[in-house]
């Protein structure tokens, strides 16, 4: 299955030059949203549907079962090594993981790279992304997704990030780069 990245580079045109702003320069100047879309809202509890279950293996061979995370708030991040917007968000999710893990947040990264671990392991080993300059030394589990999982989550483009409540139900699904501050607010709402 082919996916598109909803964020790769921005072109800024002036009278005399064309400047390409990479995700790193956009992040420096716009730590919030990269578009003018309306802010996300958590789904009302009665409207939430159970997140499709999965059992995938992380880079160390450990099984990661979504059902094992019941009772925690899960940030489920669908990403790829070639997706600029995905790589922009990874340091934010690492920050959230570190900040809120003790309060019950669990972050899981689901790579949708077609080459699987062949592409992902070298990316993780670098610890810094050359395109964005962002930290990629993820301390949370990273697994390789499948076309079947993508269909179950209605994944058509990346980045796509979901927040799953403590009961295992999808409280929010966002395609595109999230607004960091709003997203952190939604995490806090679900943790309380």
Search tags:
192 residues; alpha/beta; Glutaredoxin; five-stranded mixed β-sheet; two-stranded parallel sheet
Strand-helix topology:
Elements: E1 4-5, E2 10-13, E3 18-21, H1 23-29, E4 55-57, E5 63-65, E6 73-79, H2 84-100, E7 105-111, H3 117-126, E8 142-144, H4 147-152, E9 157-158, E10 160-164, E11 170-175, H5 180-191
Parallel strand pairs: 1-9, 6-7, 7-8
Antiparallel strand pairs: 2-3, 4-5, 6-10, 10-11
Query: Looking at CATH, which topology would you report?
Result: Glutaredoxin
The stretches of 5 or more residues where confidence is low (pLDDT under 50) are 8-36
> Order of strands across the biggest sheet?
8-7-6-10-11
| Average predicted confidence as pLDDT | 85
The CATH architecture classification is 3-Layer(aba) Sandwich
What general form does the structure show? globular
Residue share in helices? Answer: 25-40%
The CATH homologous superfamily is named Glutaredoxin
- The N- and C-terminal alpha carbons lie at a distance of 37 Å
Overall number of domains: 1
Overall strand count? 11
> Can you write the helix and strand succession as a string?
EEEHEEEHEHEHEEEH
Q: How big is the Rg? A: 16 Å
CATH class: Alpha Beta
- Largest sheet features: 5 strands, mixed
Beta-strand percent range: 15-25%
Query: Number of helical runs?
Result: 5
In quaternary terms, these chains amount to single chain
